[in-house]
Amino acid sequence: MQTCPLCASPDTGPYHRDDTREYLLCGHCALVFVPAWQHLSAAEEKAVYDRHENGPDDPGYRRFLERLFMPLITRVPPGAQGLDFGSGPGPTLSLMLEEAGHTMALFDSFYAPDERVWQRRYDFITATEVVEHLAAPGREIERLVDHLEPGGWLGLMTKRVRSRDAFAGWHYIRDPTHVAFFSESTFQWLGQRFGLRVDFPDNDVVLLQKP
After folding, report:
1. Are strands 122-128 and 148-157 parallel, antiparallel or unpaired?
2. pTM for this prediction
């Protein structure tokens, strides 16, 4: 049995199985995850992302991102320095934040792999529809928290696990690039692990503040 990729606990067990994959539940942090041997290769994963058509000229996509954008901009100071982690092939939230007067850096392992972004800290970091793709979410989230200034905000958007019954029919697990599924309890665990304040301003949106 695989240890949890978020908290490294060996306390994991079966949660759900469908026609293509199995899903394990961590008894420590409540993450639901796909075991590593069932993940896509990097090339297969990128091929899925290359088909995405979201971009800054799509008003519907902008409205979707406003669910994170609106509560975040009320919490960060004017002219803040931000990082959009997992910015994707058509960065949009970063452009919206620049339009609001903030300075943005981008990082994406496929589309903007600029390691220089890790040479500084940020007033806020965003990751929209990203953490569910992470094979090693514990390592990546720890890196994001480490690169926040004191008082800084980590803004995440990802659909949350609600119940075992809902999970079985959930469209979110049909995406083969989705391998880590967070619940409200998982985010509360993250808050305790890193000493973060945890806010849930909207469905599928969580803001975590570094002390």
Report:
1. parallel
2. 0.96
